[in-house]
Design goal:
about 60 residues, mainly alpha, about 0% strand, elongated
C-alpha cells in the first residue's frame, strides 16, 4: 500500500467491513451508551482508594 489515496481507501473499506460485521451481530455503534471518561474514572478510583485507606487506618486505632 503506497500513497495517501490507497491508504484512505483501505481505511474506508475496513470501516465498512467492521460495521457490516457489527450489524450482523445486531450491534449499532451509534445506539451504544456512552462510557464514562477514562480520566474521570481514574480520579474517582483514586478518591475511593484514599477513602478506603483512611477507613482502614481509623479501624486500627
Amino acid at each position: 500500500m503506497n500513497g495517501e489515496s490507497s491508504i484512505t481507501n483501505e481505511h474506508v473499506k475496513n470501516n465498512k467491513d467492521i460495521r457490516s460485521l457489527l450489524g450482523k451481530s445486531g450491534i449499532q455503534p451509534e445506539k451504544l451508551p456512552a462510557e464514562e471518561d477514562i480520566n474521570k474514572l481514574k480520579r474517582r478510583i483514586k478518591t475511593l482508594d484514599k477513602v478506603a485507606e483512611k477507613k482502614k487506618l481509623k479501624g486500627k486505632k
